[in-house]
Amino acid sequence: xxxxxxxxxxxxxxxxxxxxxxxxxxxxxxxxxxxxxxxxxxxxxxxxxxxxxxxxxxxxxxxxxxxxxxxxxxxxxxxxxxxxxxxxxxxxxxxxxxxxxxxxxxxxxxxxxxxxxxxxxxxxxxxxxxxxxxxxxxxxxxxxxxxxxxxxxxxxxxxxxxxxxxxxxxxxxxxxxxxxxxxxxxxxxxxxxxxxxxxxxxxxxxxxxxxxxxxxxxxxxxxxxxxxxxxxxxxxxxxxxxxxxxxxxxxxxxxxxxxxxxxxxxxxxxxxxxxxxxxxxxxxxxxxxxxxxxxxxxxxxxxxxxxxxxxxxxxxxxxxxxxxxxxxxxxxxxxxxxxxxxxxxxxxxxxxxxxxxxxxxxxxxxxxxxxxxxxxxxxxxxxxxxxxxxxxxxxxxxxxxxxxxxxxxxxxxxxxxxxxxxxxxxxxxxxxxxxxxxxxxxxxxxxxxxxxxxxxxxxxxxxxxxxxxxxxxxxxxxxxxxxxxxxxxxxxxxxxxxxxxxxxxxxxxxxxxxxxxxxxxxxxxxxxxxxxxxxxxxxxxxxxxxxxxxxxxxxxxxxxxxxxxxxxxxxxxxxxxxxxxxxxxxxxxxxxxxxxxxxxxxxxxxxxxxxxxxxxxxxxxxxxxxxxxxxxxxxxxxxxxxxxxxxxxxxxxxxxxxxxxxxxxx
Amino acid sequence: xxxxxxxxxxxxxxxxxxxxxxxxxxxxxxxxxxxxxxxxxxxxxxxxxxxxxxxxxxxxxxxxxxxxxxxxxxxxxxxxxxxxxxxxxxxxxxxxxxxxxxxxxxxxxxxxxxxxxxxxxxxxxxxxxxxxxxxxxxxxxxxxxxxxxxxxxxxxxxxxxxxxxxxxxxxxxxxxxxxxxxxxxxxxxxxxxxxxxxxxxxxxxxxxxxxxxxxxxxxxxxxxxxxxxxxxxxxxxxxxxxxxxxxxxxxxxxxxxxxxxxxxxxxxxxxxxxxxxxxxxxxxxxxxxxxxxxxxxxxxxxxxxxxxxxxxxxxxxxx
Lengths: 666, 319
Fold this sequence. Notes:
Strand content of chain B: under 5%
Radius of gyration of chain B: 19 Å
Largest interface: A-B, 89 and 86 residues
Oligomer: heterodimer
Order of helices and strands of chain A: HHEEHHHHHHHHHHHHHHHHHHHEHEEHH
Strand order of the largest sheet of chain A: 1-2
Largest sheet of chain B: none
Shape of chain B: globular
Order of helices and strands of chain B: HHEHHHHHHHHH
Structural class of chain A: mainly alpha
Number of strands of chain B: 1
Helix content of chain A: 55-70%
């Protein structure tokens, strides 16, 4: 009897759970955990990715497992949407697990076996979230995912800042989980909680809107949309680098999966203004994220804010798709959703690549701040050149993968003048301009990140002792970088897979809408309308560059002399005179000043020890979260008058309650 | 293959690329010569850039001690990107077999790739000037690139295609009607080209004061053949921007299809348009003063707003 993809995927999740159990049985055995368990986990991840590739092309499959409570078994289902996100989970976590195998060092935070347990529990719970077919299984696995990632974030729990970051993360994750639970409550319409039943329910437009907004709130809190993003820049830097990579790359995508599942699968029709709301939130998130990432001084916070920006792009694609679907323009909705799904895949690859590179840098130099790094391309060439691939990919440079999803998204914008509502037509150019601005700013951020960390001169002497990444770390980085290049150069093949996902959701997919595909050219709607061939662009680049080099060598010469750099007559130049991270962010601080809350401490001319200090903070924290925290404090202070501390008062409360209950029951 | 591959079209395109690469410094020389005439000087001659390129090629390349391989390979990559950009822009004719490979958005992406590589190379040496130039160039870039993209969008919405060849064909076949959106887009495009090509009022290409440099500060460490390739790439970039401007706003005379007679007629038409455009550029440079670097975001923000206004006008009036 052949194994169905669903059974194989569930077996992979079970394998991860088994590895977790093995890890907790040997908490201190670092070599065993690092050399055996993590590579095993990587193999399971690769197997899961292969299973998912097979499952995308096949029809949906369901099963019921007698786990959970006696009358509430778990329902599981694999369809093309689940399979696509399972592929992202499997492929990315394979690279991250291999890197983590080489990354584990003794004496860092939690015991290695316990960390291995939380890590593989995290992976297994994400796989089960993607496979869940009823609200109960979904919520149980969602909570497991949140709790296991909390323990992973607070691995180094002796540091107060990391504990605080973990607490904030857990708090917002649970606010989101409550919203998701209420969303399922609204959706199920008093039947049972399986998704099959939910699909049959017909909701009034009011309740459908309530469900959509609750899902946006709940899944958006996990994805990190503004204003629910405050946990991301705290939690991602606090976690160990492989965990940050997984959280940024895969966990945010499970939230996106949830949004897609609720909006296109569980809700039957979409309303146009849902898409506009999602589009607006996405634009604000993208701009906010990239502007803040440009002013960061910490490597990992910069990448965390960049993740917020990319989630914004994904929401923009989602909003466009919902709007087009609401107007029954399913071909264009397929284009927008294809751009969104492609960006999910791309972001998973290049963000995890960059987070792992920062992990390697952190291990080599013990520095996270950009002000103490520099010149690492000489000491760590493998990490530096692979991180260059990741940085160019995030910046959206052809012919890598970031450019393809950006190209598809901009093409989707160019079709929106066909929308029937004229005010939407005018809103959309502004949105396209904002997307273009955010994309250009991400190039700025990546030049800052790569230039300050890897290029230039070392800003500290100890950087001369930095060592390159080990073999396992290199394998993980190469796997992810190869994915970035492959998805950039072969977009038609990737879109052929994504078509299996958009087909059932919308009734049509991109290839059906275009009617003709060509293996070499990406021409989503019509070859005359727009086409792009990354293979030809890459070949053109290589050919012209090589011809230039050969012509120069043939007609002239290749002599090189080494000399000190130009110093304009000042003999005492040192490495501190290069741009700092703050200096590189100064143009953005100046141009986008209203976005930031800046507090300046400037010295007077009479200071004996002058200090100049600028802190750049998030307005949302001060306008939104601190007032809510103060309100909660005041409310709890009001309630504390009930706590007298004398047992006679508490006995009086019990007696009073008994009297009231007797009165009511009578 | 899409677009219909023909050997005539391929050879025409190859000729266009070779001609562009060889004649781009001539455009730069013409602009410099016009600027000298406007300043009542006798000028260096239009062939001066070629002499400078030959001089630089013959010299040794002097590379700083701390330079990585990225520094040495960047000039070739930048030059390759600019030649690729020339391959995508319709200069003489619209029958370009390579055009389906990259459309307007990809063209902006290729120019951005060149900018990123040269900024990274500037940061590679680790001097204050290099990082200053990189920071300023990326600041100009993040404001100018979206404006350029929106200008190209406006043209794409009019022609219902982002492929530059199709856009040129549509725009040159319309009757002599004025599209108001293209007027605004033209002003925005001029401002963006001035910024991206490091011209006054944004950047002075002839300055020798490091603190006023943007583009020059990035290439301060380059010498010999590397500097020659970068200067050549800069003149190719000016050529590309001029040809994009001509293709979008004055496409009359560009050959439709690949007939040889049309191409031969297109060559003097292009030369005339480039000569007039070069003279106008020199005129703008002569009557303007270079802005403070902190004014450049305002200048480019205005260009961005004009481009968005062009797009809105198109949505309002022309659909």
